Amino acid sequence: MSREASPVAPEPARTSEPARPGLRRRVADRVVAAVVISGMELIRRMPDAPLWWLGNAAGNIEYRVTRSRRDEARRNLRRVTEWMAANSVGDEKYRRAANDPRALEAIVRSAFRHHAHYYIELARAPRFDWNYLEKRLVIDNPDAVNAALAERRALILVGLHFGTIELPGFLALNRIGQVVAPMESLRNERVQAYMRRTRGVIGVRILTIEEAGLELLTVLRRNEPIGIIADRDLTGGGLPVEFFGAKTKIPAGPALLATETGAPAYVCGVRRVGPGRYRGVLWPVPTPGGASRRERSRSMAREEALLFERVIADAPDQWLAVFHPIWPDLELARTTGEAG
Helix, strand, or coil here: 121? Predict the structure, then answer.
């Protein structure tokens, strides 16, 4: 709200409070929340098979009507598949996309379908208990998972905007108890409260971004586990890395927390392999080298990026970050091209 001229001096306590939304905004938020929460409750109760079809249909529609997101995904996926081809990494259908525009476009379209499936799974998160996971989730490297989650202790689960984002955390809490994780605040407070409530029932304690910095450090010092999604630098204050052959930044949080507390970190990801079927991996982040805290943090960030590549290469069309700017050079080329 903009400040208006007043014949009297404003009261400091009042000017520091956030402005209350107007009546129209409050009514609209209530309606949106009712629709969203009712829809999520309906999706949570439906069987897997029709939801798989629904997700594919919704993704295909989004692909057709959102040109800017389609272009962004194509740029980013081209870079990933070119790196995969150059390094002989991953499935041939992805490597072929490096030189075949039709194969690349098929992967772009698939990314939109997976984007829709993510939101369906978000609604169905309360179903992700141990019985559900045991029937549907296959771990590619069970020895690494068993070693990491053998006991409740301070550790950092580093996730990505990839596949079924929340499943690694739910797997962890079924093995070692409650996990604390930050969540980006939603504009609609009722939807935000619903999300926090459903995850609280499962056992994930959600923090706001504002709470996260100090509280995550406190949790680790209590010898308890945390989870962080850390493949996109949203603030611009991340650590520099080479990622799929080009320079960018990733969030500094995991590296700084690990360096400060000595807690081990693990990169994890779960991908879809069919209706209600998943495969997951978890890799320990090597102990960072370096004489100073800064050097150790940068070393760990580089190791994280290498493991992110390893997770994403299994299914690059399930990496939801492709819908957003990732590499500065690609964004510069895009804006320069538009300017010209």
Answer: helix
Cα torsion 26, 119, 156, 309: sign: negative
**CA–CA distance, 91 with 241 (Å, rounded to integer):** 25
pLDDT digits (tens, 9 = 90+) for 142-193: 999 999 999 999 999 999 999 998 888 888 888 998 898 887 666 666 766 7
Question: Residues 304, 256: contact at Cβ < 8 Å?
Answer: no
Which residues, other chains included, contact 10 with Cβ-Cβ below 8 Å and sequence gap of 6+?
A: 3
Residues whose CB falls within 8 Å of the CB of residue 25, separated by 6 or more in sequence, listed in order: none
Q: Which residues contact 232 (CB under 8 A, 6 or more apart)?
A: 161, 250, 251, 321, 324, 326
pLDDT at residue 217 tops 50: yes
If 0-12 CB within 10 Å is exposed, 13-18 middle and 19+ buried, where does residue 53 land? exposed
* CB 145, CB 168: distance < 8 Å: no
Mean pLDDT to the nearest integer, 63-81: 96
Q: Count how many residues are written for the chain.
A: 340
SS3 state of residue 253: helix
- 62 and 116 in contact (C-beta within 8 Å)? yes
Interval 227-283: pLDDT, tens? 999 999 887 889 999 999 999 999 999 999 999 999 999 999 999 998 889 999 999
pLDDT at position 50, please?
A: 85
The runs of H, that is alpha helices, within 124-252 are 130-136, 142-148, 167-176, 189-202, 209-221
